[in-house]
Amino acid sequence: MKTIAVIGGGWYGCHIALSLKQKGQYYVTLYEAQSDIFHGCSGKFGIRLHAGPHYPRSKKTRESCQNHFYNFHDIYSDLLIKHEYSVYGLGIEDVDEYPSKVTESQFKLVCKECDQYQEIDIKEWNYQHLISACTVYEPSIAVGKRLREKFKKYLKEADVNLICNYKVQKIEKINNNKLQINTEHIFDHVINCTYYQDLTIDPILPFNIEVVYQPSLALYYEDNEKSCKDDAFVELT
Length: 237
Ligand SMILES: Cc1cc2nc3c(=O)[nH]c(=O)nc-3n(C[C@H](O)[C@H](O)[C@H](O)COP(=O)(O)OP(=O)(O)OC[C@H]3O[C@@H](n4cnc5c(N)ncnc54)[C@H](O)[C@@H]3O)c2cc1C
Fold this sequence. Notes:
237 residues; 13 strands; binds flavin-adenine dinucleotide
C-alpha cells in the first residue's frame, strides 16, 4: 500500500486524511505542529457552512457552495449547529460609507437560491442601516473543543496515524520519487495542508506559489440574554 503524509491538522488536512484512509488503499500519517488538531484557522473561524449568499457578486463561488453544501452537511452532520434564524442583511453603505455594490433585487435573488428563504421585516426587527434582510438555512460549523474531540474520534476509528507536536520544516525529493520529511520520514506522497506555506526546498511544483495576505476582522459574540433567539447574522455591503 502507498504511504501518504498529510501535513497540518486543520479542516483541509483532517478531511483529506480521513477520506484517503476510508478509501482503504493507503497508510495515512497526519502531522500537526501544535499539541492538538484544529488549533489553526479552522478551530477558530470555521463559522458558517456557506450556502452561497455570502458571495452575492460571484455566481461561480455561489454555485461551488451550493454544489457542496449538502455533501458536507451529510458527512459532518454531527459537527453542525443549526439556528432558528441565519440572517443576511443588505447594508445601505459599506464601511467606507460608499453605497452598497449590491442592489436590493440582486440581494433577494441570491438569497432566494437558498433553502428556507424568508424575508424579514427590518422595521419590525428594528434593524438599522439596512435596505433589506432575510433568513436562510445556513448552519454553523462547530469550533474549539467540540470539533477537536469529534474529529479525533473519526481519525482514530479510521486508523489515521495522528502525530501532534511535530513541525515539518522541509520536504525533499529523494530516490525513486519518494519524498522525505525533516530528513527522517519517507512517503510516496505528501499533501501540504498548512494554509499557504510552501515547505519544499527544491520546488516540487513547476511554478512558485504566490502568498497573499488578506486582512480580516473577527468578532466575538457573547449571548447575555439567555432568552434571546439562537441566530447568526451577516451583513453584506
Ligand atoms: C475571520 C475568518 C472567518 C472565516 N469564516 C469562515 C466561514 O464562516 N466559513 C468558512 O467556510 N470558512 C471561513 N473562514 C475560512 C476558514 O476558516 C479557512 O479557510 C479554513 O479554516 C482553512 O483551513 P486549513 O486546514 O487550510 O488551515 P488551518 O485550519 O490553519 O490548518 C493548518 C494547520 O497546519 C498546521 N501547521 C502549520 N504549519 C505546520 C508545519 N510546518 N508542520 C505541521 N503542521 C503545521 C497548523 O498548526 C494548523 O493546525 C474564515 C476565516 C477567517 C480568518
